[in-house]
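FAQ: What does a multi-protein file look like?

Like this. Sequence, then tokens, then the next protein.
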Amino acid sequence: MKRWLLGTSALAAVGLLAGEAAAADGVKLHIGGRYLAAAGGTIDEQSNIFGFEDRTRDYVFKQDVEVYFLGETTLDNGLTVGARVELEGQTSTDQIDAVFAYFSGGFGEIRFGDTFEALAQLCYTVPSASSIFGADSPLFNFSNAGVNGYSGTNGTCYGIDDKSTKIVYFSPSFGGFQFAASFTPDNTEDTRNTLNGFGTRSKTDAGQLSENLSVAATFTHEFNGIALAVGGAGSFSFDRENNNSPFFDDRREYNVYARVGYAGITFGGAYSFRENVFSFKRDSEVYGVGATYDWSRYSVGFGWSHGRYELNSFSGAEDNSDIYALTGSFQLGPGISIDGLVGFSDYNSDFAAFDYSTVEVGLGTAITF
């Protein structure tokens, strides 16, 4: 009951702030999006699995397309109200990527709907010169390590409930300091009204994470030409529904990061620890560092990330993944870039079930509108 009252009280407070205020021009519709594409592949692919290289193609073409619709207005009292719908530009099982309403003003901002939790909202990855390639959470990668290993890439900004229906609060910035908090009733997107079944949703869906809380804080400041960004976050699930197994437990995730930039050079690192991600209470850990240099319309960078993924929490056996990425980008014009990648992926398993390495190369473009 307390959580329900807190959520409805926040929304009620926004309603009171709005009062009888009106916007002279009404809600205005904006349309935007992104088109990302890349061609790439592998060189000198090696694995301890017999015939693996013969089963994988050496190259691939990829796309990632998204269109958003944004309706927004600012009321006469200064309160900004809007709603955003993000649509996948390719056929997907999750065609509506995100949808939420927001209310912002001097008090900060409140979002309600399908959107990322606080940890993922205020998060910096390992620096990369490219917006689509990198050693940490790249949008495009070409390694085939994910076929038999844990993953083809490493990431430090995952979170525990993706874009489930939630409420998120962002504080105003106080001298560069900002915090955010989010609450998710259960790990389900597209929550809507029903005329039959559970009107308030079932709380006995086997294994589903629910009662999720995420908190994050960041500090950004620029002084004497030096740009600084540091922060961290934690996400906690307080209930794994209908869980009678001693081999599962509630999920938790933590991350920290730091970046410093001066005269076009940026150096930074990121760390993530994820508890009870898999069965038998297995954890994972990812960390990495990187640096970039920007001049004129060019940018180059190098990053490294290491992922440690438990295979057996009792014996200590684990998989380890190292990713090295040399990235570059050239700005053709506002919102248009050509990006490149030369990388090395090395995956090793304690069980010798899957060892893998390859050189990755890629060329792509990012167009935002």
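And here is the next protein:
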Amino acid sequence: MLQSKLFYKTTKNKTADIESVSHDLLVRAGFIDQLMAGVYTFLPLGLKVLKNIENIIRKNMQHSPVNGQEVLMPVLQPKENWQKTGRWESLDILFKIKGSGEKEYALGATHEEVVSSLAKKSIFSYKDLPVSLFQIQTKFRDELRAKSGILRTREFLMKDLYSFHSTQEDLDKYYEKMIKVYLNIFKECGIGKMTYQTLASGGSFSRYSDEFQTITEAGEDTIYICKKCKIAINKEIKSENEKCPKCGGGEFEEKKAVEVGNIFKLGTKFSSPFDLKFTDKDATEKLVIMGCYGIGLSRLMGAVVEVSHDQKGIIWPKTIAPFLVHLIGIENNKKVSVVTEKIYNNLQREKIEVLYDDRQAKSVGEKFAEADLMGIPFRIVISEKTLKTNSVEVKERSKNNVKLVKINQLYKYV
């Protein structure tokens, strides 16, 4: 991608009234644009990051042991489905709208009401179970106070998976596998070391549910990390337990965190209102047992920036960065331009995502400052000085040192 053609604008100064580091940097670096409180446009740079996160999640949802099948369910949902579960009245963040003839609808805040009625059309026998369906789709929640940029919004992209089982034992086994898969997703996205499985109340579903909390000062939640087993518990569980319910340890470390994912054992809470039943091996009818598993993609993107930045800007992990390489030629002469252009084309041929700063009117200092703000993993600089040794300067955004790398070794290096 030629930077001169990229649809973006950067801002040097910190934006006023911004509550989180991620909000500030993502706006200033040209990744997102705020339309109104809690609603954002993802610009080309931001959308590339979001798509990379989406690909990591999709891969993990489709492969064993999850074996999820992807669907896409409607955002617009009938009032009647929500009345069946009682959540038309009880869910205070639900957007409600009226259509023609005064017919009422909900904008999907979550999809248990839709997926349960969908499953009823395909699940009849124990032979149809287990099955897992997931989607990556926009959710709408009428948050009382949208804050901290994309960490808490009214419209956001979410992966939600729903599993259907014939027995509690089967759900329990699947649930434990999903915990490991979730931890792997956060590791692949670059926040594994800062993200903790956190025990939360299971409500009417089970004794515990599990949140996945990423440590950040911008977080609204307080968690307590067990110093012995490294499992965390939330405030509600801390009030009920003097010791860690997982290992029996009694020492905790208090941290602020943001929730990037959660999973629940739903049991029959949603299968019952929709009469979602199957015929078991003994010819008896039983309610299907369900689980649900969510990850907010845009919130995850914000959490990555909260964890991975410095005073100069964002530091993207290689797995989700919008580009792997930021290519900069720093002298306006023919030799440098020709070599830079050749390297740009070769990088693309090697399937390496590259942003080429081809702008003539910008100074070297301005180019470097923007590169640091954007946070692309490798900055490659070409000048007359480096070409004397058939080399380029390579700097990793996460490190301070600069290396001279031979041009014929460059593609292997990055």
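Q: Is there any per-entry metadata?
A: Some entries carry free-text notes. For the entry above: The chain has twelve helices and 23 strands.
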